[in-house]
Amino acid sequence: QVHLVESGGGVVQPGGSLTLSCAASGFTFSDYGMHWVRQAPGKGLEWVAFLRSDGSDTYYPDSVKGRFTISRDIYKNTLNMEMNSLRTEDTAVYYCAKTGRGYYVDYWGQGTLVTVSS
Amino acid sequence: DIQMTQSPSSVSASVGDRVTITCRASQGISSWLAWYQQKPGKAPKLLIYGASSLQSGVPSRFRGSGSGTDFTLTITSLQPEDFATYYCQQANSFPLSFGGGTKVEIK
Is pLDDT above 90 for B107? Predict the structure, then answer.
């Protein structure tokens, strides 16, 4: 069965950096595109990053483009996201998510909380 | 960028009621739309993809319809476990986007 476990969240000062990881199991990791989706406290869902199944392309919204980088290690079945120049508005629970058909998310991790505060 | 607008933002309903949530895209997205359910403190769960296809394991009381710019999620007979927040998501083009959410509350 599919299992996604995020780690790496914590408290960081504005302007700082953090790297999130997601350990994937229960499926052939290299066959599926993967997303990061975040949710600020008490707010809705915001898509943050996508990595194609062949690892060739990445996509980001303007709100994080140039600051966040999604990557993967297919040998360790791990999805990563390097976050730089963090802002207070980046405070959120970050979910690792697997695509099913198309760009839909069929499995989600439990999330990891990132707090950007001085 | 495609904006997704959900309405209403909240709805109060009783067990057994029929509940309808709408989602409008700022431009046509064909049938590239999904619906998710989220309960407090939990990750979202995929209910519907391709605007009307039921995800495996999801009860048949959840129905999706629409294409182009206007979409609907209907819960035909609300059950106690359905009280949650529902989000639509367009999967037509990047940047992907979600609606603002609709909270279904107990009346």
Answer: no
